[in-house]
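dumping this here so i dont lose it
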């Protein structure tokens, strides 16, 4: 481009006002431009979404991207449930752990387990044999087990009695096995009491060198009345059945055998807290052996638990029969064998 005529070697500034320079072409304002509004409006960038207010005129709303899912708002925090306070555990004393009354069920669901359970004991006792061909007094000691349990469950009732002992005496070896087990039903006339009928079997073997007594009762039956409330039990019963066989030997040669005969008897049992007592009588109609008279038996036992797991017991028994003495003349004599003894052992007497 040729320099203007007034150019003197130095550049000169052309005024910003006045006529435009030669060849100047003014630019047209953009569509929608207004001099009062200042700078021309700017188009929003692609994907722009106004944060508030109405969108500009002609601005199309933007759809969310494909696959977009709004996030659900978080649920309010669940209320904290405080657990109920734990019940206070009261230490159990000897009185309320063993002897306190327990709640009873209804008469149709009544359950009870009471008795004496001797785990191990030492029995010391003495037999006195009179009326035989060789009367004697023997003193013996034995280790024994001696459970006696009553169980009632609704209309059912059962009884288990067993004494097993083994030891020695001043007249040789001495032992005892006395067992009776019966079960049956009762008629509840109220809570825990009513008549009952049980059936089962009984065994007896005892003796030393001066005395031997054996008997097998099968079957045997108990008919009576039972009161069983909390830690109290009272049973009254009549007993009867058949004795399959047995022996009664006393002295050296005085002997009597028992053939199959019937027997009758009775028993009373009392259980109160830590005390238990029982007494029984029985007559065997031993008509099959001379002289054909009955053989009688009496037994009694009392047990006490003065402190936990310590048992003190007293025992008594008497067997009597008329026998024919050995020798000429066939003389007859009333022979008796009487026992007194005591037991110290480990066990319990209570509601189990």
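and the seq i came up w/
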């Amino acid at each position: 481009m040729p320099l203007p005529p007034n150019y003197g070697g130095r550049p000169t500034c052309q005024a910003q006002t006045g006529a435009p320079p030669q060849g100047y072409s003014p630019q047209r304002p953009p569509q929608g431009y207004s001099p009062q509004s200042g700078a021309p409006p700017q188009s929003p960038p692609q994907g722009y979404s106004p944060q508030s207010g109405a969108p500009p005129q002609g601005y199309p709303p933007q759809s969310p991207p494909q696959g977009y899912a709004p996030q659900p708002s978080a649920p309010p925090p669940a209320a904290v449930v405080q657990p109920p306070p734990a019940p206070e555990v009261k230490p159990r004393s000897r009185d309320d752990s063993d002897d306190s009354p327990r709640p009873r069920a209804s008469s149709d669901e009544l359950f009870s387990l009471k008795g004496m359970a001797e785990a191990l004991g030492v029995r010391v006792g003495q037999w006195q044999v009179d009326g035989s061909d060789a009367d004697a007094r023997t003193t013996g000691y034995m280790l024994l087990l001696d459970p006696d349990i009553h169980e009632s469950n609704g209309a059912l009732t059962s009884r288990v009695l067993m004494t097993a002992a083994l030891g020695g005496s001043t007249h040789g070896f001495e032992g005892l096995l006395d067992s009776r087990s019966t079960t049956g039903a009762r008629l509840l006339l109220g809570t825990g009491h009513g008549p009952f009928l049980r059936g089962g079997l009984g065994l007896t073997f005892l003796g030393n060198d001066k005395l031997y007594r054996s008997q097998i009762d099968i079957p045997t039956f108990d008919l009576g009345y039972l009161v069983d409330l909390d830690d109290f039990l009272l049973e009254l019963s009549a007993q009867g059945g058949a004795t399959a066989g047995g022996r009664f030997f006393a002295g050296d040669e005085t002997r009597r055998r028992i053939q199959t005969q019937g027997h009758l008897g009775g028993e009373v049992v009392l259980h109160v807290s830590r005390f238990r007592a029982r007494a029984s009588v029985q007559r065997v109609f031993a008509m099959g052996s001379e002289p054909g008279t009955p053989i009688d038996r009496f037994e009694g036992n009392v047990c006490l638990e003065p402190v936990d797991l310590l048992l003190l017991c007293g025992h008594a028994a008497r067997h009597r029969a008329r026998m024919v003495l050995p020798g000429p003349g066939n003389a007859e004599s009333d022979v008796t064998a009487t026992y007194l003894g005591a037991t110290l052992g480990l066990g319990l007497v209570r509601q189990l």
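The chain has one helix and 14 strands.
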